[in-house]
Amino acid sequence: MTSRRLVDFHCHLDLYPDHEALVRECDCLEVFTLAVTTTPRAWRRNQQLASKTRYVRTALGLHPQLVATHATEIALWEEFLPNARYVGEVGLDAGPRFYRSLDRQKQVFERILRQCAAAGGKILTIHSVRAATPVLDMLEQHLPQDRGAAVLHWFTGTKAEAKRAIELGCYFSINIEMLKNERHAGLVAALPPERLLTETDGPFVKGEMGQMRPRDVAQTLASLARVLGLEEDDLATRIQGNLKQLVSA
Length: 249
Ligand code: MN
Fold this sequence. Notes:
two-stranded antiparallel ribbon; alpha/beta; binds manganese (II) ion; TIM Barrel
């Protein structure tokens, strides 16, 4: 084990068969892990396990891909919000499988952003598949920069959309899959280094050894260091600094 501390700012810990062991592993290895949830029903258990750790935090989510079937859970989401510092996975998905629920997704996301703005101090991890522009429009309209922080997870928008996201104060959490695609890697290389975080998005993203666990964010770090032309240790230090900046704002 190295003294290098890793950051996995978006992982679905509760979708692994060994959820509880994985929480302990993240804490033992000192991998700062943001355990995102896809419905607010999953939040309490995640929160309970994470509350015993130094390095695992839980985000209160309502995934855009589940809005078609779980939109009514927004009430439960609102009930838990006062106890949640982190929010996600939330956002919009305009891909072919979820396009039909896009209007409903926008209603739910607007409600989430407004509630976060009202509460203040929340940090959001946001999904924006084929929906970078509407996500940015909604952030601009409903979450003033001094009322919350937005991290765009697996951002695949255009350069113009990235520029706008930067102006809106967004951070970007980068996973290894994004770096395998030439266009996306090029986009990542052009982002301001002080806005970068790393993520696995496990178990959905596969690494060198199959399904990624938070500790495997080391692979993401190595790959991102290559793309940016930085030393891994320097990048690790920078990412830790970015995280500190984000959570202390
Ligand atoms: Mn995810």
